[in-house]
Amino acid sequence: MAIQWRGPVPASNYTVGRGGNSVELIVDHWTVVMFEGAIRRFLNPASILSAHYVVGADGRVAQLVSEDDTAYHAGLFSVNQRSIGIEHEAGPAMPPTDAVYAASARLHADIASRYGLALQVGTTVLPHHAIVPTECPGTLDLERIVREALQEDDMFTDADRAMLKRVYDHLEAYEPLTWTKRLQLWLAKALSTGVPTADLSGPDVETGQAFDARTASRR
Questions:
Q1: What average pLDDT values come out for the chain (219 residues) when binned by 10 residues?
Q2: Within its chain, how far is the Cα of 117 from the centroid?
Q3: Which pTM was predicted?
Q4: Quick check: helix, strand or coil at residue 143?
Q5: Which one, 86, 110, 152, 210, has least CB within 10 Å?
């Protein structure tokens, strides 16, 4: 997915490294202000705030802090060290858009695949208010983000699913036994029509008895 680098944020707003911690969860927020306003806030050294990503109402994604570093977003430093913070352009007067959900789902799926996270709200995906007293992320639907992220992660298109359904509906035609039997019958018929040599030794796959090419070729 396309991500625009808008960092680095000032040194006062993040910590280099994660203090030996690994990424274990994603913390989701809403910006309350517009996309560019959120970025300006994180670039202001006096704010002592940052997030790894900001997702715009139009689907844009900006990155301000490397995932290798600790952004100041969760309100608890120990959580910051173990998490990736994602801000979403939304607020009381800005309901989250479909584009926000779609872009955030792709970002969540990408992060989960790289860190081996099983996306689940309440364990690996947390709202900001689960960590400190706050209204953030308001009306942002984390269940929807995770649901769409899991759909992104399965990598199947509608055409893929239609093809798989056709296979499933006619599963017996794909059984190895069926195809082996068809090959035996084809070889038997080929032998009877002039193939000079063919090794048809071995049992009939259906009966387990010795394979009789002369009888099988007439089936």
A1: 94 98 98 98 98 98 98 98 98 97 97 96 98 97 97 60 60 56 62 55 63 52
A2: 10
A3: 0.71
A4: helix
A5: 210
